[in-house]
Design goal:
Blueprint: H1 2-19, E1 29-30, E2 37-38, H2 40-53, E3 59-62, E4 76-84, H3 86-91, E5 97-104, E6 107-115, E7 120-125, E8 129-132, E9 135-137, E10 149-153, H4 154-158, E11 171-175, H5 178-186, E12 192-195, E13 199-200, H6 201-213, E14 217-220, E15 234-235, E16 238-241, H7 246-253
Parallel strand pairs: 3-4, 10-11, 10-12
Antiparallel strand pairs: 1-2, 4-5, 5-6, 6-7, 7-8, 8-9, 12-16, 13-15, 14-16
């Protein structure tokens, strides 16, 4: 519970810092190597998260900071995205969040996601389960894919990468922020999400913790279990959902060459 309280406090501080910015007045700079946009709100959130979370002996991996590889020698490492969904934030679309994951010996053991625009907070750990706005929640127990809500990246949908699922019996809902999508799946507010686009550890650490805490499943496209605090923090893609439909999701994805 001490870890979750620290995460809760950090999420609250970051939300207050971000709320002091006017999104439409912010300039979005491009990060190196095509890693997307960044604003002063991202940087300010990163600073307060580090201040609240990091303690002696712990490692740090953040989208908005230089990667200090001394983290590889640490057992406990904070993996954070200070503002996941910067494009949505700047555009005024309420599908962005603050994302905090805590990895221990390569496994995420606790996480938190806060969407200040919608007033949603997701907190969870392997020991304590998941709460959604303070109330216990769990991943979907639906056993069929017919009518299941699957959250898709809005940019992937716009690029046509989800055309193969038009005739599938699922309801595809374009949504920003992979961390927010994973949190919604963990809380049972959607049945599944997946992406064929590479993601970084900071994109998914908190969401993976939440889905696992809620009794759902998360795996890489090659069916391996994602691990954290790696020298290269990049994953090829991800699949997550309620455990009862795991096999059915894989059967659906098997018909898509890129899966």
């Amino acid at each position: 519970m001490e870890d979750l309280e620290r995460i809760r406090e950090a999420l609250q501080h970051a939300a207050r810092v971000i709320s002091s910015f006017v999104p439409e007045a912010l300039d979005a700079d491009r990060k190196p190597r095509g890693r997307g946009p960044v604003t002063e709100a991202d940087r300010a959130s990163d600073r307060i998260l580090r201040e609240v979370l990091l303690r002696e002996g712990e490692g740090w991996l953040s989208e908005e900071g230089e990667d200090d590889l001394t983290r590889l020698k640490k057992q406990r490492v904070w993996v954070v995205d200070p503002l996941d969904g910067t494009l949505e934030f700047v555009a005024g679309i309420p599908e962005w969040c603050v994302s905090i994951g805590l990895a221990e010996n390569g496994r995420v053991i606790a996480g938190g996601v806060s969407n200040p625009a919608t007033g949603e907070t997701f907190l969870g750990s392997l020991e304590d389960g998941l709460t959604y706005n303070g109330k216990p929640a769990h991943a979907s127990i639906r056993t069929t894919l017919e009518g299941a809500v699957v959250l898709a990246s809005r940019s992937e949908v716009q690029r046509g990468e989800w055309k193969a699922f038009r005739k599938a019996p699922i309801t595809v809902r374009p949504t920003g922020s992979i961390a927010y999508k994973l949190a919604l799946v963990g809380a049972g507010l959607a049945e599944a999400t997946w992406t064929f686009v590479p993601k970084h550890e900071w994109d998914i650490a908190a969401g993976v913790a939440l889905v696992h805490a809620a009794g759902g499943f998360v795996e890489c496209l090659d069916r391996s279990t994602p691990t954290f605090n790696n020298p290269s923090p990049l994953f090829s893609g991800l699949v997550a959902g309620g455990l009862p439909v795991r096999v059915k999701i894989r059967a659906l994805l098997s018909a898509v060459p890129s899966a």
